[in-house]
């Protein structure tokens, strides 16, 4: 469903002051591009092998809100607009994105509320408002956890000690 909602946005991106890379997923690529001629500033791919390398050179990410993506966004302090999947257990993607939004570190659009105009306005508000953009980066950095392996080790160690006693 997200792909079908994004087509309108991509088809109307001709006069934007930025480039867009849209990744459909392998299973949906052929249907997505069938009969389409997207503007020159839009590139559509089925899949990208080294997404992590690309993210380092990305100004804004529009994405779902799974745990792996969230940790990449946090570790890179990469401003993002999250469109959580409504089809996941306990709506966890929504709550992941809400935590970022509530900390003024990102934006959230529920898929049922996604329109081309709403997404366009949100992108402009983030990309072309330097103060807002830097605030998001700063807040993402504050939220990131750089020593997660140490924290996990300590928890395991404490559990082992507790079991001994």
Can you give a write-up of this model?
It is a single chain. The protein is mostly helical. It has helices spanning 2-11, 29-33, 51-55, 67-76, 92-102, 116-127, 130-143, 148-164, and strands spanning 20-23, 42-45, 61-63, 80-82, 107-108. The longest helix has 17 residues, at 148-164. The mean pLDDT is 94. Helix 1 crosses helix 6 (116-127). The chain is globular and about 65 Å long. The strands form 2 sheets. A 3-stranded parallel β-sheet has the order 3-4-5, covered by helices on one side. Strands 1-2 form a two-stranded parallel ribbon. It has 8 helices and 5 strands; from the N terminus they run H-E-H-E-H-E-H-E-H-E-H-H-H.
């Amino acid at each position: 469903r997200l792909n079908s909602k994004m087509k309108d946005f991509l088809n109307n991106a001709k006069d934007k002051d930025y480039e867009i890379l849209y990744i459909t997923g392998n299973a949906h690529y052929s249907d997505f591009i069938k009969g389409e001629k997207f503007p020159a500033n839009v590139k559509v791919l089925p899949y990208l092998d080294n997404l992590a390398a690309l993210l380092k050179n990305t100004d804004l990410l529009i994405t779902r809100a799974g745990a792996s993506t969230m940790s990449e966004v946090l570790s890179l302090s990469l401003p993002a607009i999250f469109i959580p999947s409504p089809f996941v257990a306990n709506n966890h993607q929504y709550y992941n994105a809400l935590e970022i939004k509530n900390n003024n570190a990102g934006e959230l659009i529920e898929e049922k509320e996604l329109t081309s105009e709403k997404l366009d306005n949100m992108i402009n508000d983030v990309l072309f408002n330097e103060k807002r953009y830097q605030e998001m980066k700063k807040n993402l950095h504050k939220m990131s956890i750089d020593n997660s392996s140490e924290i996990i080790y300590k928890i395991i160690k404490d559990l082992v000690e507790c079991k001994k006693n």
